[in-house]
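[Discussion] Sanity-checking designs against the backbone

I'm trying to build intuition for which residues belong where. Below is a structure token string of 91 positions. I'd appreciate it if someone posts a full sequence so I can compare it with mine line by line.
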């Protein structure tokens, strides 16, 4: 029974990944050229940033960047906690 459930879950995940890979755009092709043109035309006026990449990362996608920083911080704290535990065990 357990083996059948694991096999079904594996097949479901594998099918999902294969379908997702089949739907991907070719590498390097943008989702929409209109978005690129919008950012290039409006970045300086909307966010007062001369660098469009900086405007996208910190202003347009600010919450996403904050989430990535939170994950990175949690990973560093986790690694430090493991090393501290190992150091205490050696004493």
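Best answer:
Here's mine. Compare freely.
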């Amino acid at each position: 029974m357990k083996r059948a459930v694991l096999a079904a879950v594996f097949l479901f995940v594998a099918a999902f990944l294969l379908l997702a890979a089949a739907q991907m755009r070719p590498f390097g092709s943008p989702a929409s050229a209109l978005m690129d043109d919008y950012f290039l035309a409006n970045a300086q006026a909307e966010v007062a940033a001369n660098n469009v990449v900086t405007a996208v990362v910190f202003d347009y996608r600010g919450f996403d960047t904050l989430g990535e920083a939170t994950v990175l911080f949690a990973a560093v704290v986790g690694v430090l906690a493991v090393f501290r535990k190992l150091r205490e065990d050696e004493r």
